Amino acid sequence: MLAWLKNYRRADLAGDVGAGIVVAMMMIPQGMAYALVAGLPPVVGLYASIVPPLLYALFGTSSTQSVGPMAIISLMTASALAPLAAAGGALYAVLAAQLAALSGAVLLACGLLRIGFLANFFSRPVMNGFTLGSAVVIALGQVDTLLGAPFPYWHGPSAALGLAGIAFLLAARRWLAPVLRRLGLAPGAADIGARLAPMLLVLGSVLLVALLHLDAGGMRTIGHVPAGLPHLNTMVSGEHWQQLLKPALLIGFMSFLIAMSGAQTLAVKRAEKLHTDRELVALGAANIGSALSGGFPVTGSLSRSAVNFAAGANTQLAGIITAALLACALVLPTGWLALLPLPVLAATIIVAVLGMLEWNTLRTSWRYDRADALALLATAGGVLLLGVEAGVVLGLVLSLGAMIWRESRPHIALLGRIAGTEHFRNVDRYAVETAPGLLLLRVDAGLFFGNVEAVKGRIEEELAAHADTRDLVLVLSAVNAIDTSALFGLIDLNHTLGQRGVKLHFAEVKGPVMDRLRTSALVEQLHGHIFLSTANAWDALTHYNT
Q1: Which of 104, 393, 433, 446 is the most exposed place for a label (fewest CB within 10 A)?
Q2: Which CA distances in Å does 304 have to 44, 136, 269, 280, 377?
Q3: What does the pLDDT look like over 498-520, one tens digit per residue?
Q4: How many beta carbons lie within 10 A of that of residue 325, not counting itself?
């Protein structure tokens, strides 16, 4: 599991150290901000950023994955715990760690049982809709903190600082990197510098509060941040296991999907191979480690991983260095963090989550497949109106429903021959020739219990439209499987057609499908033949009909 360490090269050290430092600076404001989203004290975000990356480095397969708190998982944590305990209380913290332990156990079990494929049932539109809805919920949830009081009764200095923070971060996102490049920095270094804008904002706001004594004027700050490393946490609430199981399952799957989407993107750039089941084990261990150190559910962050990649991370050692630096930050005096204004953290959260909004998937799916677009919008709307869990379930059900609906109505093409060739194409798309008495139909989907009746219905329509048919050839080049229900459907079709004087033939049957058909009664009872190709069927049956 430590193959990267056994093969470590001295030349990789500089990149790993630099990336570890950069991500640690990025993690301080992010970790504290996402802890607030989860309803926990800011220091818990730092606790959740130390042990998890160490365990991921032990088990994970991505050299650039940055594991720790993440906005969406923090929102899901808050949504799961809100009905069970008051945010910020002792029980709430215990349940947050317990939720991380359960989520980790789910991920670990999936990895050991090699069932990570189940996560593939979350389609990209559903994930995009979930991200869209979650980003809006998180941003709206920070408005009161940003303004220093419930809207519209804002606190003037707090609102001014918070809105100025948003303006600074947005400006930095758009213009800071080009400015740094014009000042002579390399493009990669300039991009990294722009990513550190939240840390600059934190330092600047702390200095401003200290100089102007804004906290004495009513501006809320994060308050005392206890120094020292997190202690071993073994506290659990026995009466809440069952209530936490369902959200733990959902958080586990979402953690895996979010982490893998970022890791796969970066792995392609380095020609790395990620091992899905080992990634599940690594994320499971990271979440269990977060629970034991008093944290909350964690996952891989695309934004931090991208920074880690751009900063030169070569191996998982970069994550270990990040964790070590964060541990040092807690061991050293933390009094300055007490002056960090909450409106600035709110600004950091709002800009971060709004940066997650990605409209290209909606535009593409709206043009390409309206069912997917509707699943995306339904997921986003469900998250906004019904809550996180209900929104995800709604989107998943609609996405699977659309898939089942499409599979239950497969495309069936009426074929003809392109003159002078052995190529057969759809009569509605090409100029082709047909033969009297011969009907060629290509089924473009696997045959199963959900679509066999629809296929038989379409066949009857074509037979009614071609009353002179004496030979029906089903071209099965696109059929990868025929289940038992479909097999009986074909047997019934063969019998019915035989009574009407029509022979049923097959062409281009794939090997695995043919192997199973040979064990059935269909091959023995078939009134027609099984042809190697559509051209063979055409030659034999047109000659026969002539």
Answers
A1: 433
A2: 18, 21, 16, 19, 27
A3: 999 999 999 999 999 999 999 99
A4: 17
Cis bond upstream, residue 53 (ω within 30): no
- Rounded distance, CA 157 to CA 276, Å? 49
Q: How many CB atoms lie within 10 A of CB 5?
A: 13
User: Residue 199 is encoded by which pair of tokens?
Assistant: 């840390």
| pLDDT at residue number 545 | 58
The residues, ordered by sequence, that sit 6+ positions from 505 with a Cβ below 8 Å of its Cβ are: 471, 472, 473, 474, 526, 528, 529, 530, 531, 537, 541
β-strands 471-475, 438-443 pairing: parallel
The residue-averaged pLDDT of 158-176 equals 94
Domain limits of the chain? 13-403, 412-545
Statement: residue 449 has pLDDT above 80: yes
Structure token digits, residue 251: 């958080």
Q: Using alpha carbons, list the distances in angstroms from residue 47 to 39, 292, 306, 340, 405.
A: 15, 10, 22, 18, 46
Count the alpha carbons within 13 Å of 450 in the hemisphere toward its beta carbon.
12
Please state the three-class secondary structure of 169-185 as a single string: HHHHHHHHHHHHHHCCC
How far is 316 from 66, CA to CA, in rounded Å? 9
Q: What CATH code is assigned to 412-545?
A: 3.30.750.24
- Grouping H, G, I as helix, E, B as strand and the rest as coil, residue 89 is coil
Amino acid at site 269: K
Which of helix, strand or coil describes residue 477? coil
CA quadruple 20, 101, 294, 32: dihedral sign: positive
- Cα(217)–Cα(224) distance, rounded to whole angstroms? 18
Q: Which residues pair with 415 in a beta bridge?
A: 426
DSSP result, 396-435: HHHHHHHHHHHHHS--EEEEEEPTTSS-EEETTTS--B--
Q: Are 452 and 435 in contact (CB under 8 A)?
A: no
pLDDT confidence of residue 126:
84
Rounded to whole angstroms, what are the CA distances from 187 to 245, 308, 311, 467? 46, 15, 11, 71
Report pTM. Answer: 0.81
Report the candidate in 15, 94, 78, 89 with the shortest Cα–Cα distance to residue 316. 15
Residues 6 or more apart whose Cβ sits within 8 Å of residue 500: none
pLDDT, tens digit, for every residue of 408-426?
889 999 999 999 899 999 9
Look at the block and give the residue holding tokens 């038989």.
Answer: 456
For residue 366, the Cα-to-chain-centroid distance in whole angstroms is: 19
Angle made by CA atoms 130, 42, 312, in degrees to the nearest 5:
70
Closest CA to 444 of 455, 457, 430: 455
